[in-house]
Amino acid sequence: MRSISRRSVLAGMTAFSTMRSVKADEPHAPKHLDSIASPSPRLDTPVFDTAISILATSIPSHVNLLRVKGYASAGDGGAALYKKVAFEPSCGGNLQSADGGWWEIEEEIARPEMFGFMGTTIAAAAVDETTAATAMGNWGRRRGSLHLRLAPGKKYSYTNPYFLTGIRDSLIIDGHDAAFQNIRATVTGVSGNAANFQCLVFPSIFYNGGQNVWEALSPQLEYGPLVHTVPAGSTTITLLPGGSNADFIVGKRALIYGYAMQVAGFPITTLFFEYVTITGIDGLNLTIAEPLRFSYYSDFPVIVSSGTYLGPPRILSCSRGSNNFEETASMEFNGLRFMADSGWSERDGGTINRNGRPWIGSYKKAVLNHCTGEGGLYVMQGQHFTDNGSNFAGETEVDKFIELAQFEGVDYAAFSQGTGCRQLVFSDNSIIRKMNSIDALETVEIRDSVIAGYTRANKQILSGTFGTPTTKIKNSRIKSHNSLLAYRFSDPKVAAFDQASPTRLYMRTSLFIRSNLVRVMRPNSILYNAGGEAVFRCTAPAREDSDRTFFDGVMLCGSYMNGDTLYCPTFPDVEALGNELLGCDDVTWVPAATSTSNVLPLFAKRRDKYANEGKWVLSSNLRPEISTTAIRMALGYLVKATKLTIDVTRPYTGATATALLEVRLPDGAVLACVDLKTSGRRVMVAFGEARAISTHDALNELSSDPLFILQIRTSAAVAYGSSSDAAVWSVVLQGMQILE
Question: What's this model's pTM, rounded to 2 decimal places?
Answer without folding.
Answer: 0.78
